[in-house]
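Continuing the series of single-chain predictions for the mutant panel. This is the parent chain; the variants come on the following pages.
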Amino acid sequence: GLGCDAVGVARDERGRVIVDESWETSVPGVFAIGDVIAGPMLAHKASDEGVALAELLAGQEGHLNYDAIPSVVYTHPEIAGVGKTEDQLKSEGTPYKRGSFRYAANGRALGLGETQGVVKMLAHKDSDRLLGCHIVGAHAGDLIAEIALAIEFGASSEDIARTVHAHPTLAEIVKEAALDVDKRALHR
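Parent structure:
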């Protein structure tokens, strides 16, 4: 219903508008972002695409790292993820290592009565660069932000493991998962 065919905007087999790396469609001067193009249908993805596109159109450097866009499901417990999944890494043949840590072993989670959950962290087997993280548990949508930032800046699991996290916080579960990538978690 967007009139793409009438103006010659190409679409893929699922009806999504095809764009290049600068969000330009097959029609010069026509751009598309958000839910009409490939990728997750997330408001924050579309918003950042809009900012990056506006920067490009203003002659600036527009940037969006699709591997660093978190997604959150607001259930109880919450579910959040950023980067690649284990299945994606396996199908790509990317060598990886994983660490995980349970909410039940965290003092703050115990105090909050929110012991259901886990953080799973994935890092490249050789470089230790973070490839993905998935969280099921209380405040997962808040905790995933640290990992999105780490992926954006090319951090390793060791970088997170060496970062001091306030105590007692749920964020310590992220640190413990990072430590567990190399099987060094402090609290079991």
